Amino acid sequence: QCARICPTGAIIPKNEVSKAWELLDNPEYKTVATIAPAVRVGFGEAFGMPVGTDVTGKITAALKQLGFVAVFDTTFAADLTVVEEAEEFLRRVTAGGTLPQFTSCCPAWVKYAEQFYPELLPNLSSCRSPQAMFGAMAKEMLPKLFDVPREKVKIVSIMPCTAKKFEAQRPEFSRDGDRETEVVLTTQELIQMIKGAGIDFNAIEPEAMDLPLGFKTGAGVIFGVTGGVSEAALRYAYKKLTGKNLANVEFKEVRGDDGYRRAEITIGDNKVRVVVVHSLSNAHKICEEVKAGKADVDLIEVMACPGGCVGGAGQPVYVGMETRKQRAAGLYRVDRNMQLHSSEDNPYVKEAYQNILGTPNSHKAHELLHTHYQSRKRIQDEDVLVSGSDEAQEK
Ligand code: SF4
What we know:
Keywords: 2Fe-2S, 4Fe-4S, Iron, Iron-sulfur, Membrane, Metal-binding, NAD, Repeat, Translocase
Number of strands: 10
Distance between the termini: 25 Å
Bound molecules: iron/sulfur cluster
Strand content: 5-15%
Organism: Oligosphaera ethanolica
Number of domains: 1
CATH superfamily: Fe-only Hydrogenase (Larger Subunit), Chain L, domain 3
Number of helices: 16
CATH topology: Fe-only Hydrogenase (Larger Subunit), Chain L, domain 3
Largest sheet: 4 strands, parallel
Strand order of the largest sheet: 2-1-4-7
Subcellular location: Membrane
GO molecular function: 2 iron, 2 sulfur cluster binding; 4 iron, 4 sulfur cluster binding; ferredoxin hydrogenase activity; iron ion binding; NADH dehydrogenase (ubiquinone) activity
Family: Belongs to the complex I 75 kDa subunit family.
């Protein structure tokens, strides 16, 4: 039963605040921070601000005061995820690949699929999560920028999520024992650090994030809410299939609170059938339908937490759906206030393809931005008990 609620062992997450302090205290390291989309609209609650207030600039300033040499945005990597995942989907459709395609940006869902539905793993997008894509890109780009060896760049990821702690430990996201993401702090843990350091968060002046990995579009920002990954992919697919810019970028058909939603989107001559689910009970439902051949769908977005990442277990404690809705509204406001709403328009994403990745889904893109999965069915009992615990992290 525990495994159904918490497939990643997130019930027993390890607090990593002291590990983050150790990195910051070591002058040999260039320690940088990266902030997930949903964090910015949950953070202010701990300081008495209205639910859904975007405090990206204040978090950035606070992180600089804590000693991070640069502050970036995981949303940059969410933009990369959109490009890679939408391209993968379009290739599966045109080349007769395995369909429907499931999203893979939620590590709790990925681990759930590995444990309970290994027969569906070919349906999962091979794209890494934005956190894991960020780690790979940062380790590729920052050593040159800072003129230090790769292992001296340390990445601290600020996440709404306890499952991301498990994800960062996966051996496929390390090279020669050097983890791409060294420490994962939840929103609550960063709040603890800021309060512990005596920083007056309410009074602090906002600061801009650093380039190039701090630049994002609105498509990446809405990754933090259920339906956001689908909407971002649809924005990309529209331009790719029609060659035109969207007059209205908001796909309201995939938005909402229902735990299981269906939508059919017409793009040019094509119809894309989408299912959006959040919470693992609804993931279970759609998986059973796919297994039975009754799903009648092309693209399936799964987020394990109710409401998506805005309702993540690492966010400040909230009461009920209204809080989630207001955080989601905060992310949609951020999207509306941005100049760019489609991931492929991010100039630093374009630059990454020009200078490092080549084309979407290229060999290099697969090396840095994609992953593989393994059945955990046989080891699930042992795995569920220890993952995320001290013992697991020491293994
Ligand atoms: Fe993490 Fe929850 Fe978001 Fe999944 S939905 S990535 S478990 S916060």
